Fold this protein.
Amino acid sequence: MRRLFWLAMGITIGVLIVRKLSSAAEKLSPGSIGRSIADGLGDLADAIGDFGADIRAAAAEREAELRAGTGLDAPLPAGDQIRFPGRHGAHSADH
C-alpha cells in the first residue's frame, strides 16, 4: 500500500512538472513572444496617445487663461475709439 501511495505521488508530481515545463516552453516560442511584443507595443501606443491628448488639453486650457489675462479675445475697438500714444493733440495743431 505504501509503494502504491509513493508511485501515485511520483506520477502526480511528474505530471505537474511536465505541465509547467510545457507552459513555459509555449511562452518562449517565437509566436508567443511576438504576440507579447505586439501587445506591449499596442499598450505603449495607447499610453503615448493618452499623454498627447493630456498635453493638448493642458495647452488649450493654458492658452485660454493667457488670452483671458491679456485681453486678446476682447472685441476690437471702432476706428474713432483708437488712441495712439503721443498723438492726442495732433489734429488740433494741424487745423
Notes: The mean pLDDT is 85. The CA atoms of residues 8 and 19 lie 17 Å apart.
